[in-house]
Amino acid sequence: MGNRQLILYVLSGVVILLAVWVSIGGLFGADPYTAESSTRAAQARGFDAVTLFFAVPGLAIFLVLAMFGTIRGMLAHAGVLAYFVYTYGSYALGFTVNRFFLVYVILFSVSFFAFLLALRDVVDSDIDESVLWEAVVKTTAAVLILVGVGTFSVWIGPVLEAVTGGTPKVVIEADGHLAAQTLDLGLVAPASVLVGVLLLRKNLWGLIFAPILMIKNLALVGSGVAMTFMLAQAGIPASVGQIVFFAISGVVLLVVTVWLFISLKWSPGIF
pTM above 0.85? Predict the structure, then answer.
């Protein structure tokens, strides 16, 4: 184990411990979201639930697989770290300052640098460039491009209305803090489209980033499902359209992500 890997594993451990702390605090402790609207507080608890019960165990499992040098483990590890970067960047930038603010900043910073180190491990691995480009690659590319275009389409209208003097519902609910919209329009949408195009062009960088983005997007859809449940608990039921959207998106992302990881033709003999 080199120094870089040791630092990565330590940083990942820090992310796990701090994420457990703030997630339990958000779900079961003295409410840190009292300054937020009921909608935003319910959404935050949805993210906390997914983080505590899925993202943290997933990061721990994939960290162990990455430590054994499995390419699937390294890619999934990087993907879950990308989820933490997105989530706690949104928390730090989007929520009214609460007692966990500095922890959000630390989680954002630590998960970001851990992600960079995890990505370096993937790039340095024994990659077999004679990848078999099968139907799964085109399917994954199509899904990523749809995610990018869909994300852009959802947010661009309300954001344009807001910057031209309007007050769309999304701005009111976010108390004017458009952190998620900034990350989605500035990073998620263009990255998804770019990686999808790279996949279609059979570019190795597309293959590297596609599994990472698919894991991250799957985790975010899971957060959307949890947010819908938390909103219903708070007396703000979701529309049938929203429920159908999350259900279909979750199934598609799960099936394609599993298919992609199973189909990876990379480093023969490695899990």
Answer: yes
